Amino acid sequence: MEYLLLIYSDEKDMAATPPAELEQMMGAYMAYTQALAGANVLRGGNRLRPISAATTVRTTGGKTQTLDGPFAETREQLGGYYLIDVPDLDAALSWASRCPGAQYGSVEVRPIWAM
Fold it and tell me: What is the pLDDT of residue 55?
């Protein structure tokens, strides 16, 4: 079953992180990505650009609006994701707990609804 691991963190905190710590964090993500690939569960994933680059589209009553930035104001922003294919929720939660993003923010685990 496929699950999306949604990685949330505070962009302001990330921007204030010293370069040496950022390099260590990126190394942890590279190792995590290699572990997912080595276990043959990785189906995709990417880091997202900052929310300042986001555009939200909403259609209400037949009228489309485009807004700069995300729709909701939150303390943590979606910064990236992994798409994994594992046997069950317990396996997905196990992988999510090992994601470096769980140390700096949160990792939401969401099952994919195949269409």
Answer: 87
